[in-house]
C-alpha cells in the first residue's frame, strides 16, 4: 500500500527541489505544501518539528527534516 507523503517546502529551496525530484523519480505520490505562501502548512510544520527549516518530509508520520536520502529511502521501503 502506498505511504502518505507530505513535503513541506518552498519554491526557492534547492534541497526541497532535490527531495521532490527524488520522489518523482521513484514514482512516489506526495502532497507538496509551500510553507512560504501557506500559513496553515507553515504552522502544521512548526507543530511537527518545532522549527522553520525546509524541506520537511512526513512519511506516514515519520518526520524527516532536510533531504536525507537514505532515511527517505528507508521510510519509503525503497531498496
Structural summary, described in words:
With 79 residues, the protein is α+β, with helices and mostly antiparallel strands. The protein has one domain (5-76): Glutaredoxin. The chain has 3 helices and 4 strands. The protein has helices at residues 14-25, 39-49, 69-76, and strands at residues 5-9, 31-34, 56-59, 62-65. The chain has a 4-stranded mixed beta sheet, sandwiched between helices. β1, α1 and β2 form a beta-alpha-beta unit. The longest helix is centred in the first third of the chain and has 12 residues, at 14-25. The radius of gyration is 12 Å and the shape is globular. The model has no long low-confidence stretch (mean pLDDT 96).
**Total DSSP E strands:** 4
What is the helix/strand order?
Answer: EHEHEEH
Q: Can you tell me the CATH superfamily?
A: Glutaredoxin
Q: Total helix count?
A: 3
Topology-level CATH name: Glutaredoxin
The first-to-last residue Cα distance is: 16 Å
Q: How many strands, which pairing sense, and closed or not: the largest β-sheet?
A: 4 strands, mixed
| Principal-axis shape | globular
Oligomer: single chain
Tally of separate domains = 1
Largest sheet: spatial strand order: 2-1-3-4
Strand content: 15-25%
CATH class: Alpha Beta
CATH architectural label: 3-Layer(aba) Sandwich
Structural class computed from helices and strand pairing: alpha+beta
Computed over alpha carbons, the radius of gyration is: 12 Å
**Could you tell me the mean pLDDT?**
96
Estimate percent helicity. 25-40%
Low-confidence stretches: none
Amino acid at each position: 500500500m502506498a505511504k502518505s507523503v507530505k513535503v513541506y517546502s518552498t519554491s526557492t529551496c534547492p534541497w526541497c527541489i532535490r527531495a521532490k525530484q527524488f520522489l518523482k523519480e521513484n514514482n512516489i505520490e506526495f502532497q507538496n505544501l509551500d510553507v512560504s505562501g501557506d500559513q496553515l502548512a507553515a504552522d502544521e510544520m512548526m507543530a511537527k518539528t518545532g522549527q522553520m527549516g525546509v524541506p520537511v518530509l512526513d512519511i506516514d508520520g515519520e518526520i524527516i527534516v532536510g533531504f536525507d536520502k537514505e532515511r527517505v529511502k528507508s521510510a519509503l521501503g525503497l531498496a
